[in-house]
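Below is a filled-in request sheet from our internal design queue. Each sheet records the structural input a requester submitted and the sequence that came back. We keep these sheets so that new team members can see what a complete request looks like end to end.

REQUESTER: design group, bay 2
PRIORITY: normal
MODE: inverse folding
CHAIN LENGTH: 281
BACKBONE (tokenized):
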């Protein structure tokens, strides 16, 4: 038995009023009436080109039921015809309430439409692209208002001018949460794999203002170079990382063959048989 289109999961478990046996027989027996309604809905087209296999009927309430047929039109593979029929107690036939084409479990449907301003994601901006600031962006406030950063507000007051807009307290908090939860925050796998933290590293350059108490920029090209990192972030390229222990063969004094004296071997004595006679000596 197939449930009617659009019926919520909660409705499946909620007990619905059931029709009497006579009304149920009229509703469930209206298969041909439902099929004919589809043809009339499509202007009398060939039934073989519209309606496929009959999928079953489900009772909606005490006076209505939904018949389902597989749609066989090109481009609607997996879709279904849903025909809602109705009958009142004592009726000898059912009437048509609605004919709709609905997607089935295997139907190919378009993804949910997303407005343009919600489609742009971090990292999508490329050279030459223009991205306007949203209207009434809560992250920004007029430059004459307090930004929530005491050092920035004091500097703007001393100089006598400021930006047309500055980052609001809400915007600073949102950025801090995003950075803290990023891959350069204390919860990242890199940070959890070491005990050393960035705030104790020589490559860590603190930000100015209130955000400098929690964040800085990494200046180590072998690590998170140029990225904003949390002070509690850490990596294996910390400036206090010790040199690895010496490995390989033990150290021996070098052997210098330049300090040796080379000498020719002594000539060997001739055998007695080859010695000169005494008379010839």
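RETURNED SEQUENCE:
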């Amino acid at each position: 038995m197939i449930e009617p289109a659009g019926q919520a999961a909660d409705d499946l478990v909620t007990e619905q009023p059931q029709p009497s046996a006579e009304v149920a027989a009229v509703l469930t027996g209206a298969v041909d009436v439902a099929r004919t309604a589809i043809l009339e809905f499509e202007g009398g087209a060939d039934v073989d080109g519209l309606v496929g296999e009959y999928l079953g009927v489900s009772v909606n309430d005490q006076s209505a039921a939904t018949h389902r047929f597989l749609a066989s039109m090109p481009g609607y593979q997996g879709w279904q015809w849903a025909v809602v029929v109705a009958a009142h107690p004592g009726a000898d036939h059912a009437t048509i309430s609605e004919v709709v084409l609905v997607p089935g479990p295997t139907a190919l449907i378009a993804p949910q439409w997303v407005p343009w301003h919600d489609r742009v994601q971090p990292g999508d901006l490329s050279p030459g692209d223009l991205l306007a600031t949203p209207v009434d962006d809560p992250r920004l406030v007029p430059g004459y208002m307090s930004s929530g950063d005491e050092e920035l507000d004091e500097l703007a007051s001393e100089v006598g001018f400021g930006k047309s807009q500055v980052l609001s307290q809400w915007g600073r908090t949102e950025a801090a949460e995003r950075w803290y939860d990023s891959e350069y925050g204390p919860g990242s796998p890199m940070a959890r794999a070491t005990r050393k933290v960035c705030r104790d590293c020589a490559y860590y350059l603190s930000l100015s203002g209130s955000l400098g108490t929690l964040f800085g920029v990494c200046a180590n090209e072998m690590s998170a170079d140029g990225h904003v990192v949390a002070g509690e972030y850490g990596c294996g390229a910390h400036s206090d990382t010790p040199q690895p222990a010496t490995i390989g063969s033990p150290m021996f004094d070098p052997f210098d063959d330049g300090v040796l004296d080379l000498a020719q071997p002594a000539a060997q004595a001739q055998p007695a048989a080859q010695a000169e006679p005494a008379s010839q000596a």
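SHEET NOTES:
- The two ends are 137 Å apart (CA to CA).
- Residues 9-103 form a domain with the Nuclear Transport Factor 2; Chain: A, fold (CATH 3.10.450).
FILED BY: M.R.
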